[in-house]
Structure formats: C-alpha cells, structure tokens
Amino acid sequence: MSMLSVSDLNVWFGTGRDRVDAVRDATFDVPAGESFGLVGESGSGKSTILRAITGLAPTWSGRIEVNGMTLGPRRDRAFYKTVQMVFQDPYASLHPRHSVDAVLGETLHLHGFKDIDARVVKLLDDVGLGGQFRFRYPHQLSGGQRQRVAIARALAGEPEILLLDEPTSALDVSVQAEILNLLTDLRAERSLTYVMVSHDLAVVGHMCGRLAVMKDGRIVEIMDVQALRDRQATHPYSQELLRNSIGA
Amino acid sequence: MTATPDTPGGAPTLRSWLLTETPTSRRHARYSSFYKGWLSFRSNTMAMIGLGILVALVAIAIFAPLIAPHDPYAQDLGNRLQPLGTDGHVLGTDSLGRDILSRLIFGSRITLYIVALVALIAPIAGLLVGTVSGYAGGFVDSVLMRITDIFLAFPRLVLALAFVAALGAGIENAVLAISLTAWPPYARIARAETLTIRGSDFISAVRLQGAGPLRIIMRHIWPLCVSSLIVRVTLDMAGIILAAAGLGFLGLGAQPPSPEWGAMISEGRRFILDHWWVATMPGLAIFTVSLAFNLLGDGLRDVLDPKDSGS
Amino acid sequence: MSLLDVENLWVKFPTRQGVFDAVRGVSFTLGKERLGIVGESGSGKSMTGRAILRLIRPPGIVQADHIKLGGDDLLQKSEKDMRAVRGQRISMVMQDPKFSLNPVMRIGDQLIEAYRLANKSDRKGAKSTAIEALEAVSIRDPERVMRAYPHEMSGGMGQRIMIAMMLIPDPEILIADEPTSALDVSVQRQVLSIMDKLVTDRGMGLIFISHDLNLVADFCDRVLIMYSGRVVEVCQADRLHEATHPYTRGLLKSLPRLDQPQGKLQVLKRDPAWADAPSVSGRA
Description:
Chain A is built from nine helices and ten strands. By secondary structure, chain A is an alpha/beta fold.
C-alpha cells in the first residue's frame, strides 16, 4: 500500500503575468517503508514538491494522499504527526534564541506529550547527541550537531514519513557520512518512509531505492537506483546528469 | 574551534561555571548566556560610562530625600537667584530662592517616571502592531500600516501639543502624548523584522509542528524583535526626555512648582542673560542623561543585535 | 621557477579564550600550475587564500617568514602597494558572484572600470577589451550582457563574469575560493573548463580552494590537504586516491559512491595527533 501518493501535482507562485509554474504534473507513489529520491538541478522544483506536501507552498492543485487520506487545502494536527520535514540549512532551521531543550520541549508539547523531560533525553540519545547538548544554544553547536537537533525535532511527533530537503548539502563530507548513517539507522529502527531531495546523485544512490529525475518542474524519469548504478537512464537529461555527476 | 582556554584545568569557579559550553540546566544556560552578554558589554567603555550614569541617576532618584540638601519646594525670597557656589547652595538658587541642586535631584524622579512610562507603552504598542501586521500580511497589514503612516505623518511635538491641549496639561498626559507619537517607528521596525523572520526555515519548522499564529508570534518572533527594539528605545530615550522637557518648557507638561527639568529651564529663561545658571543646570542634567542613554544604546546594540551574535 | 613562495604562514585571531590559530605554519610554492587546497570547514583553507592577499580583517593577524610574489615579499609592502597587487597581479574569485558584483552598476561598466583601473586607456579601447574578456569565458552575446545588471544573470553566468573581470588585468595568479560550490553540476563543469583553458593559455598560476575532493582530483595538478590549520598531506592530484594520510583516506571513504553501494558509510575517526603534527611543506 502506498504511504504517499502524489498525482498531477502543479505548484505555482504569483498570479497573472508573474505566475511561475514551479512544478507541473508531478506524479509518483511511495510505498510504506521505501526511501524515494527526488533529484534535479536548482530550480527544478524538487524542494517545492516537499513544500506543497507540507502545506508551506499554499498554491497547488492535483491530488496528494498520505496513508490513504486525501489532503485538503489545510493541514491538521494528525497530518503533522504523520509527516515531518528536515530542512536543508541547519544554520537557518533552528531558532537562534531557543536552546535545544526549548526546541524539543516545545515540539513535544505541541504534539500533546506529557512526559516531556524523559522524551527530550530519549530523542537526544536517539540522534546521537548526549545530554550535555541539551541546554546549548544553536550558536554553540556545529553544523552536524544542529542537523541532528533538527532531525530530533522532526522525530519528536513519531511521524511515519520524513521529508528530507537536502539534509547534508550544507555539511562537510565527513559529517555528511555521519548524518546519512544516522538517517539510515533511524529508518530501520522506526520503519520510516523517506522522501529525499538532493542534487547529489551519489547521496540519493546511497540512501534511496527509487528516484525521480526532475527538470524544469517536470518529472522526466522515475527509475530504480540499480538502473542508475548500471547507467541505464533512458531520458537524455538523466543521462546528462549522470555523466556530469560521475565525471565520466 | 580549537582555542586554548586561559584557565588550565578548569577549576570550578563561578566564572568557569558561567562560561561553560555545556550547561546542565535551563537556569544554568540562561545565567551563562546573560554573563557572556555582560562580558561583551563590559568591554565597551563608553557603554559602561552610560550605564554608570544611569545607575547613579536611579540611585539619586530613589534616595532623593536623603541626598537633597534642601526642600525642593521651600521658597526663600530673600535668597533668590544666588550664583553657583553660594554657601549652602552649590548650584545656586532660582527666582523663588529654591535650591537648584535639590530641585534637580527631585526632578530626576520625574524624568525617570516619564522615561519608564514611555518605554513601557510605545515599544509594546509598536511591537504588537508591527508583528501582527508583518505576520498576518494582506488586508490586516495594509490597514495597520496605513494607520501607522497617519501617525508618522504628524509632526511629533505638534501632535503631542494637540493631545495635551485636548486632555489638559500634566505629566501623565504628556507621557501619553509622547507615547502616542513614539510608537509608529517601533511598529515599522517590528514589522520589517517580522517579514524577514516569517520566511525563515525555523518558522516553517515550527509551523510543521502544528503551532498556531499566536504561539509563533509570541514565542518565536517577539524574542527576535525585542532586542532591536530595546536598542532603538534606548537610543530614542534622549529624544523622549527632550520631548518631555519641551512640553514642560512650553508649560504643557509638568506644572509648577514641580521640579521637572524642562519646566525649570522654562522658568530660568527669563533670567538667562544675568543669571545663566538657573536655566543651564537643568539643561546640563538633560544633556547628561540623554548622552548616557545614547551610549548605553550603542553598547546594547553590540550585545543584543541578533544579526551579529549567534552565528 | 615559482610564481609564489609562501613560507611558514600563520593566521591568528585573538579571542577572549586566548589566541586562535586559524592557519598554522603553512608553506608552499606555486608555479604555472593548478594547485588545489582541500579541507573541511574550519580547516583554514580560505584563510590561507585570503592571507596571501593580506585580506584578513583585524583583529586577525597574518605572520609568515615570507610571502614572495616574484622577488617581492608581500608582507613588506605598504597597504597602498598591496592594493596594486590585489586584482592586478593576484586576482581572487569568491564563492558567490552575487556578493562580488556591484548590484546597481551595469556589468559592462564594471568591466570597463576594472580595465581602466589597470591600464591607462580610453573608454572605447576598454569596452572592446571587456567584450573580448566576456567572449573568453564563453559568453555568447557579450553586448547584451554588458548592458545587463548582475541580478539579471544566473549563478553560472555571474561566476563567468566574475572570472572575466578578474582576468582583465592579466594577473599572474588567480585564487579561486570555492568558485563553483554554489553552481549546479552541469554549470560547474563549464566554469571549470573555462578556467582551465584560461590558466593554460595564459600561463597563470591557479590556487583552487575547495571542499570537494573529487573535483580537485579531476581538475588540479597538485593538492594540499589541510586539517585544523595545517597541511597534513601533499600529493599529485591524479594520485589523490592513493593518498596515505588517514585523514585524506577517511575523507575519501566517507563519500557515498554510485559504483560501490554499501550499507553504511565509513565515518571519519579524528585523531588529535593530526592537528598536532607539524605542517607538511608544499614546496614543489
């Protein structure tokens, strides 16, 4: 059964002459427990799809189903308990004046949990940060530690789907490896469904089972990662992307 | 970052407890960040001078009856317009023979009262209007901003004059009048800050947790706007004191025999050529306090401005 | 014969907790070659590039035994003489072209101004040189680009314009600090090949600062690997994959690879000894 199903999704910004169609007729299905990748260059609309799913991009048409339920124009609490997102830039996604404890505590409170103290400790533990990070402020954390806090925040409501918007593109490669490993472990432990946006084919190849290649707001090809590894992309654009990425 | 700490071993002193990178509780973290802010404020000599003057002003206001050598209201017509350094009247006496120093000391209470009231009313009103306007956008934004524009279009002192004229002279009405003319710039600042904060990822993130607009404005936007407002208020404080003094000078603020500094200048005006100190001493007091607020504001900007810190 | 000779370069920042050394005893020479400097954030790679041009802001301090450009020691020069070096003899391309171009000036005017600062020339001559420079970085209709403002350009175009601008005074050395990190992969390759061609044709020295090991391995001749302010390893770029230092090996292994799928990525285990070991000399 598909966990997330998107069909004929159009997303646009502005009206009239200024209208920009960021996503056109995007259709894809993500079964429960799968990790699905969206790749493309900047401006191809891959992040916009995630923002439309979460309701952060309000002007869209088409059909989005989460766990069999069709989404309306507004998202409710049940949706936020099912779907969560990790943002690209860990330097921008944490409130500069809120400590780690405040960020996680507030999130848990919003999801209606009572045993907040115990859960904050558990969450920090789950993402590989010890208790000594609990009362720090973002400026006292490195990029990788911030991204771990952001992942902990996304996991606080115990979601089933995690939308990952270039979660490691702002990080060093050695830190990227740690975060990707963490995401791999978390998916296995919690049987999460991932939708991962990236411009890096190697990262998507490592993390995902299937991927969609996007260009100018359209999905030009959906393929298995195995096909990607065997360089069996059929669409000329995917082939070009593959060539550029591998440098062959 | 691999900086070498200057306290080897890290003996558990209060200083090292406050400067720790790994706070152990919420309170510890809060004290620690306050202390770090204080350290960076302390390194700014001019700001420390400003703070020193203001602390002294508050102390003078609190202990006015103990410090003042004379009763500020006691008239002594035989002893009027005594020059500086007269026995018993260091700063001389005014046209009714009242001791100028004592009047200045008691006047500090009025100045602080005005400053405190305006500092409570104007920025808070501005913060409310600005953040709601900026976060809501659309129609609400247009309406609130046009109201702000209308208030901004009036010359400040003239609008204050109109209010006082309508409500009657007196300190409370002067404060109200000043506040009513002072809030629009704060609303503008708060709105501009809100607009940049609104689009940031951390606001998106908390929206995805299901937080409502009220919580986002109060818990996430306010803390980031407040610091720039505090800085702006401190820098405006000089203008507010001057406006209050101006109203006093025009006879529309504090009423005689109240020792308000502006009213004192107004009274001394008649003798300015022959007895210059009567008007000059309260003028110097206004100048000193205004300067102190400006110095403090500059120092606070360095500590509080979120654009510089926290990165 | 080396164009640039840096000996024992230190960059220090006094902080409340003591002096922070961002670059610690780095030595290297640069000939007519493409020298890569790779490292992670905080490794001091960008600081090294800026220190050569003495662009470290106070309170930062640059110290070195010498930084020789040709026969002159840059550290001995006055600030006024340094201004003549910057842009004229050593140019620098930054990561994001948006912040390097003046947003309220037409691109053509900026290029012409850059040329006229370098050469005593009339406007007409400067204009034709500017157009040639744009053609040299493969911009198709230079006339139109000359009339445009920076915000009308895409990231790749902007970066090409920056390179064109840096090349107008015909510098001996180009320092490129993450010049392609903000660009998409396809554009990245184009910009790199343009830079490559220019460096080869004009016989310039290039210092290419990047966090991307594979890119540097492909593009450069020689590579310095930096870790916490020091050079930990120097190697030929085409031999980068045979690097011996555990830090370099760890970095290479932590990259996911399409051709070698693995369940878990290898995580770099940092050894404090790497930061303490003396800097390896990058003299050719």
